[in-house]
Amino acid sequence: MGDILSANETSQRQKLIKEGVPVLEGAFWLHITPDRLEAYLKPPTQNPPLLSPEEKISLRKELEKWGLVRILDTPKYQRDRIVVAEGTPPKAGQDASIRPLVAVSNSMPLSEERIDYRERNAIVCVQKGQRIAEKIPPTPGTPGMDVFGDVIPPVPGKDTSFKFGQGVKLSADGLYLEAEQDGVLLYENGRYSIKPSFVLNGNVDWDIGNIRFYGKKLTINGDVKRGFKIWCKGDLEINGSVEDEVTIEVQGDLHVGGLIKSEKTFIKSSGNACLSIVEYAHIIIGQHLCVSDYLLNTHCEVGGSLRMAHEAKIVGGKYYVKGSIVVGSLGSSAHVKTVVRAGYDQSLHNTLEELQIKLSLAYENFDKIGKILRTEKELREKGLLDAKREAIFKRLKLHYRKLLLDITTLEEEQKALKRRLGLLREATVKAFEIVYPGTEIWITNRHFLVSRPLKDITFYCKGRQIVYRQNG
Predict the structure, then answer these.
(1) Around Cβ 403, how many Cβ atoms within 10 Å?
(2) Which position has the higher pLDDT, 428 or 464?
(3) Where would you tag: which of 59, 167, 198, 417 has the fewest CB atoms within 10 A of its CB?
(4) If 0-12 CB within 10 Å is exposed, 13-18 middle and 19+ buried, where does residue 64 land?
(5) Chain segment 217-237, per-residue pLDDT in tens
(6) What is the pLDDT at residue 6?
(7) Is 73 exposed, middle or buried (0-12, 13-18, 19+ CB in 10 A)?
(8) What residues does each domain of the chain span?
(9) pTM across the whole model
(10) Of residues 357 and 445, which shows the higher confidence score?
(11) Sheet containing 21-23: order of strands
(12) 3-class secondary-structure state, position 336
């Protein structure tokens, strides 16, 4: 089947479709439907009689003579016909489709100028290289077969294409949309795009939920309400306040214009930070910190310098700063315990402590092995140095030499760390206004307890002490 038909065969098929031919000595007429999917007998009257076994045998031979191959073993009796052969219709292919891989609400268009997040209720972010959508290719469909055994080709599915804009690209195989950069994923008019910076004109609250932001900058023109969390890969600007029990982690720079409050609030920034007011919170800043108003009973760790406005205050709390500290005033007339440490590098101190423990252990083992090795000569002279003891001493000598090398290496590391510690001692603590009694000043491991009010001064290291001078 499937060969090129002869002119006679073509003529026969056309006759079967258009007119029909008599079979079983003219008792029935054989017809083929135009789509060639059904062959049937047309009886002279309705409600055709059942075919006898002999008629079925004769009929099959006649059907085969006319080229039919999809002959039914059991004919199907209908009101006005007997179906004797059936083909299989082709199945059309499925059209191509786009399947989202990231859920993006499209209930309303997004705009950076004004967004009603009570309707959108989400900020969807993606990372560079992340797949956003997938194209399901069209299928070719399934071929059919007519009553003559010829293949009927299916209608293939229609193809489609992605629609995308800024920040989005096609994968190498053309089957996926991928993020070209970190940012907020938008879906407008069937088109994907990614914005590296985004503005939220509202609060971070129950309508928004926790935020996990990937991009260059996230700006929040509102407050961060109690208990919510923000994780930001880029820079973060909050123009409102930060309430209690909030957690904020920023890989870039941080700016908070309003009040940050509560012992259970934790804020960490790997970059620089600019804050206004902080009360009781736990703050960790990877680089430099500037404060415009005051810090109250705050636990603060700064990897660079801490610089505050001339009138800004530090009242209560503990402040660990790797660089120098510049502030308006320190402590309070109520003698609230205030501890500031400049030139402080906890990791450096920890490394020095660990190194000192290793050195102490190495010195101790070196001395013990040295004492044992000094007995070798005495044992040899007394003839007590047998082969077993000789082998032990040999191993001890090897270990002794290794310990000596280890001690030399550790001492060099210790010197290098102490040099770094020496550089940290160049840090200063400067107060433009007043330092109240009871304030503790540390510069690296040097300590100074303020016993009387001191105005407009700078603390610095001199030798093994902290001293102060008037600001000039």
Answers:
(1) 19
(2) 428
(3) 417
(4) exposed
(5) 999 999 999 999 999 999 999
(6) 66
(7) exposed
(8) 7-86, 97-143+150-195, 197-287, 347-411
(9) 0.71
(10) 357
(11) 21-23, 28-32, 38-42, 82-86, 71-77
(12) coil
